[in-house]
User: Fold these one by one.
Assistant:
Number 1:
Amino acid sequence: MRSAAKSTVRATFAVFALVAAVSATPARAEKRLALVVGNNAYESVPRLEKAVNDAKAVSSSLQSLGFQVQLATDLNRRDFIRQLSAFMDKVSPGDLALIYYAGHGIEVRGVNYILPIDIPPVKQGQESLLTGEAVQTEKLITDLQERGARASVFVLDACRDNPFKTGTTRSLGGARGLAQGTPPEGVFVLYSAGVGQAALDRMSDRDADPNSVFTRVFLKEVQKKENTLVAIAKSTQVAVRDLSLTVSHTQVPAYYDQIIGQLYLASDGAAPAKSAQEAPVASNKPARPPVVANLPPQPSQPKPSQPTARAVFNNRAFNDYLKRQPQMVRADLANPNAVANCDRLASYGSDVPDSRAPRVRRDDIRVKEAVPACVAAILQEPGTPRLRAQLARALLDAPAKRDKVAGLDMLLDLAKDGYPAAMWRIGICYYGGELLKENKRAAAFWFRQAADKGLGAAMSDLAYLHERGEGVEKDGVEAARWFERAAAGGHPGGMRNYALVLDQGEAVPRNPKQSAEYLLTAFRMGSPDARESLFRKHASWRADTRAQVQELLREFGFQVGRTDGEFDGNTFTALEALRASNPINAGRVE
């Protein structure tokens, strides 16, 4: 079954990038636009069978939801750029824009690219040739953002088997999978499979469905017009996971939610009435964010010369802090490096998907430098919640209690805005009794809020609470489920933890191969715990899991010698070579 499943694997990677925007002009009827592309007929890499079918099916589905669809298939690079340009020209501020792509994709040093059908054959060392001929996925998201759309949706359905893999020498790109791209603020991201996972093209050789496993599920879920995009993501996640497990394959779609309010893809979608959710500490519960539904039809307005502004965030606590610290307003606002300095001095690192720098340990935060740097950065970019979260992080380590309280107040504002990293950090305050009375149940509540919005660090911490029975019922199976979601969502610590769960086989069936894949991917992403497990504590892992690590290193083209699970100098050399030449930086600036 394993070999059959491997032969039918086609990775499907889906990204929904939704960027909320507001306008000072009267509301007008939005356009709902979609560009749908499917590529099968590759000239120099393996041809595909279902990409065009998937694109046509998605096109029909989107039309039924009220989208104006621009469908194109088997595009070379020049035609691809022309289609993109024509589509971007149609998008106006206040519109809902969607791009769907099905075809080959590849990750090179942590950056994802999609491939036109005339991509030339390239080998290891020819990365510049590939990146010059391919299309970087992050640029597509950026281009849609710059058009000022009310919401932008980006769906990428790309093959996860490396089309340039040789099998005998070091191939260009990763052995499998795309890297989890770092979404900008105000973005919802859904992947059809987690980091290091391959998505199934079909269930078996007898599977006659014309669509990939992820797409067939998504097409059903997206037609449930009463569901928000978050609900669609969750139901798709469960259905795909359950389907893949029936053929002994692990595929868990991962998603991130950094959107204020809710979005309905259907043109007649409406927010159903829901009862209020009980919170363990009602006074600190974030207010339910406003629903982002369809704008009502209005008389057409002249197009503004500039894109509309991004969503307005609640800066009350930050403004109150500046009133008490007026000297902070004199921060070097003209410093072009203000944002970069804030990131460098107070970044959460890979714990938060939208971080832009390596993690700064709390013990290493230089408060006197980090606070003014982040204040200047926020004054330059008041609509960037990451910067306020980093200022709050620095203030929580300030010596004065008043500053600590200001930091917590900023986190509460961010939580009301729907920013998951703030919810997670509030949970940490409750867990450790930092400024707030220790309350494990409240910690679990806040971790769950952030976990439901796709934050891997919160999922991993929630799993830890279930494992220990702190604030929630002790439940090893539930802990394993949250570790799995954290891993699929691209959180390095969650990957290492779920790798251990799969190695031990107590809460879930043992799976040495999946365990090795997660462990190596966490190592490629720079996880210190994964490195410790591979270099110093490898003897505590099962022999068959260690052997799978060596087999994967051979597949990457680095392992020489034994693959019996006994780590030696060759294995450690191969690990170092893998990390040096094929890292996944998770969107951070190293």
Note: Confidence is low (pLDDT under 50) at residues 1-27, 166-172, 270-312.
Number 2:
Amino acid sequence: MRLSKLALCLASVSLPVMAETTSADQPLLTTSLDAITVTATRTQKTALNSAQAVNVITSENIEQLLSTTVFDSLIAVPNVTATGGPRSGGQKFSVRGFNDAEDVLVSVDGAIQTFEKYRMGSFFGDAELYRSVSIKRGPSTVLHGGGALGGVVEMELKDASDFLAPEQTAGAKVKLGHHGNNNENNGTVYAYARPTESLDLLASYVKRESDDFELSNGQTLENSAIEAESILLKGEYYLMENSLFGLSYTQSEDAQRTEFNTTDPGAWGTVYRVVKQSVTNLSYELNPANNPYVDLTVRLGNTQSHVTESDGQGMLEDYIGVESHYEYNINTLDIMNTSVLGMHALTYGVQYSNKERLGEKQSYPCVEYNPQTYACLEYASDLTYSEMGSQPGGEQKRLGVYIQDEFTWQALTLTGGVRYEKYRTTPTEMFDSRYPELDTKVEHSKVVPAFTANYQFTEQFALFASYQEGFRAPLIDELYDLYNGRNPNLELETENSQNQEIGMSYQTRNVFSDVDSLTGRVIYFDTQVDDEIQSNTSSVTNPAPAPRYNNSGENDRDGFELEVNYAHRVGYVNISYSEVSGEDKNGEPLWYLPANKLSVSGELMFFDDALRTGISIQDVAARTLLAYDSASSSYQETEQASYTLVGLNASWDINDNWNARLAVDNLFDKEYQVMAGTGGAIGDYGVGRNIKTQLSFKF
């Protein structure tokens, strides 16, 4: 294990403190590890008691920071960061160094959400829409399916119960905000009602408009303005006290001129880009009282992600054509039930998804071009439609069945599960017609196990260990890619991983008084990846027409994660630290892994919690990486500088209906650079000081 001196120091200092014992006569006060989650085991547990590396970001956490996107709220989660630039639609989730969209499974109210496009981010929903974001670090394939090598991000939409006061039948809430750095004006309206005891209704609208960001180096980030809006419609109907139907629809849209490359620095040119992402969910829940055999959830979801680009400038004029269109349509069916049989809690189910991918271009073909400058000299007169060889379309169907047994005997809990999953991938008709001699339909299947043991030594102290396998099937574009005249690779196999973890958790109360609590968790993990699907476009090591993608990679990474939370009646302090390191099959470091991160956040409450003031400190260590050196025309080791960011926040409940909030990001206007979204390089400079205000009222 490549533990740093800081990790060893933190562990040696905190673990003895976490080994104290105290009385158990009163309930614990709430800390960030006490949030209820089903992401880890699909049975309700606190994040601490799940014996898994899972964290929950609540709507209060999001509001506290006045976050625009969920990526703004990842500061305190160990080994979870955002990669990519600060432009709208330029960020992706990175979990334990897995930072591609295909390695982190994202869902909204259970509907799978995926978007992959060259030099773009993967998720575009507004933070105001979500009541919680649960993040499971490490594979969770048995319960959630292929594509969760790095982890799972489950987002839950807000509903009327988040706003309605006891005995209230209808109401509304309005938020008006301003961000000083980019002169952003934003507004949110919620309308909610309970017309009958059985029916809850919620409607919401969010609007954001801004100028360009000012970066921490004092420069303006050109083409980074925001012009976005989101809507949320949600209803829940109780057939009986223990039987619930739910229907929700959410849509986010952003339309503006922006850089073609939103994830990394460098001049690529601009396009007019319209991004639209929508999620529709229909759900049914049945949990009859005094029936241990039925705890049923059925979810039917549809996710649509559409990106349209036009009016490309410079070299992008021919690449974009008149209009380029990228689309993902994903249908999801998830049926799950939990049956309690004595000491066993059996969770079993079936999951199905159908993902359709489309990449089309509308253009006037170039009939004559300058071979030196590649500029088109003459265009054809007829407008044509064509599929993109580097963004191939197709369809991928997935069927998975699983069973998990959670066995509890006295202080010991053993959780074991197994999943079988099958994929069938087909290309477009145009691709088929181009390769009539090939069987272009590809099938993959996999069986994966998982096992976790948790032993509660005392009421306060527990040890846990787990082994989980993960995998992902080849993507549509990896199978059918025709980049720069290359052949497809229909022989690609699944990418596989094995993850081992060991950790301990601690929770106690009455640490310094009878109104405080302490919780903590420490985890060590080791993850091996085999048959990694890699891209090689080098004309030297992989000359055309050889396929671009192959199962040539292997890597091994391990890391350390520590969380300590102290809560008192008048406030709290949360501390988290994480690090991860690794190497590939040639013994070379994994340059794309994130830097070590230490996060400290705290809050104090005054006047019966009417006034809250908080601070957050994020210290990101230096990291070594490979960067391209134009002078030598080669990649050289370089170091990305460390940085420390400080933020402040405050909330004042003026009365029962009015609230004022303040948040300051990068208080000292520290100059720093983020992690790029491609290859883990040094990215754009981060955003400079940003003073954010918000006034809300409800009636």
Note: DSSP finds six helices and 40 strands in the chain.
Number 3:
Amino acid sequence: MTNTDGLSRGELQDKAIQGALWTLVHVAVSLPLAFAVNIVIARTLGVVDYGRLAYLGTVMVLVGTVVDLGVVSGVVQFGAKAHAAGRTAEVTRLLSASKGYRTVVGMPLIAVTVLVLVDVDPGLMAVAIAFGVVLPCLLGGAGEALAIESKTARDAQASMIVNLVAQVLVVIAATTVGTADSIWVVRLVAGGLGTLLFLVFVSRTYRRAMLRPRLRGFPRGFWKFALPAGAASMVAAFVLSRSEVLVLTWMSEVHAAGVFALAIGLASHLFAPAQSLVGPLVPAISGLREVDVDAVGRALGRTLRASSTVMAAIVAAAMPAFALLVPLIYGEEFSDVPEVLLALGIAGGLLVIAEPIKAFVAARLKGMWLLWLNLTTLVVSVGLMVLLIPPLGVWGAVISNLSSALVLVTLLIVTEVRAVGTGTWRALGDIAPYFLGVLACLVAWWGTGRFGLPSVPSAVLAGVVGLGLVVGAMRLTRRGLTPQDAEAVQRSLPGRVRRVLRGPLRLMTTARDDEERSRKRGTTPVDAVPGVGAP
């Protein structure tokens, strides 16, 4: 079924794919630069001050998430549905109400909380409040508007430009002033000014609505979804946004905080390409549920197979190779990072797989379920941190992080796949490539380390061995992308990109498609139609 007044299923697919491709371009450009800048920062600050920089950044993330109260999530969900159905007036009221909340409620609360929790020079604090709080609250929100319009491609383009400018400014601050506080403030200034660029890409009607804040205008049912979803996001932020750095700092484990911060930051860099594909899916999934609910289950299966297969390759090849290079790149002061990086990388891969499933939960407007899910995860995380950090230090934080990721993915798999009729065992089969990738990663790391080679040859060997092991394991078990998946991806890509990715796609296409499985069983395929927006 399509909606001729709004966006059809095919249009949703095209916009989601364009967004994903441009987001990948953004990641391809920004990731190497961010990696290089991170080296400069780590070598300049050292372990302890690097941990302080992570602490300052984490405070801003957590404060913003708490004050948001689910408004951003609610605006994207309700706005994407209304825009897909052609209800423009409803979207404009929603954006105006969102800006009113940000200006009247969000701005003063964030400013006061940052003043209480962050201890920096008064001059730096004034700049941080002006550009990190006031400017984003007054002129921010373009990201939600672009998501509503499925202009995630434009969002990625603007993000790429802002990131390039920010990284240049950070390097200048690191090489001249060289303090964690100055780098933190420079990042806030760059981000605050960057909000102006995003506004350019928002359609005139929606931009005008964003610049006219109202205290009313949220649709019926908005807060019923937004408040539980906001509470869920708040809890998730404490679990997933480097909150271990806060706890380690509060427990005076400042060296451990620096080690943990670098390890989880490097894991985030490695997973950024895969994580970047999730953002464009959120409004597309929400719109799909509005115009073709029958396709949601098939879309979930395809999303799980794609995310787990990509993460399997990254974990098996990149993770052991990169871990072997850390002491060479960052210096012996960070020699404790490699093993921590491997463990946090495994947890991070699980979280990347969890994000698409959470997008499907959000599309059903199950905010209360997201809240209970994240509360359960928080109890596990905080309980293990309190118990294990005093005796184990950084490894107590690592065990907490990995355990919470396992709990999150398990709960999502058990519940959401049943809600869309996929079936738990089938969903576990869809994510099986990732666990094969973890096994290949550990074997490659342990095996190549036994040869005693220099760092660079060891890293190259580990990457090749890990990739070979995971591909062989997927072919042996017939897990990975199906021919239907690969065909759908190739149809959606531009000609040049298609030629470049044809080989990797063929390498990862190792699972039987539904028609083949049905022929072997002698039944009619129930899942032969491709996922989101397939013709």
Note: The two ends are 12 Å apart (CA to CA).
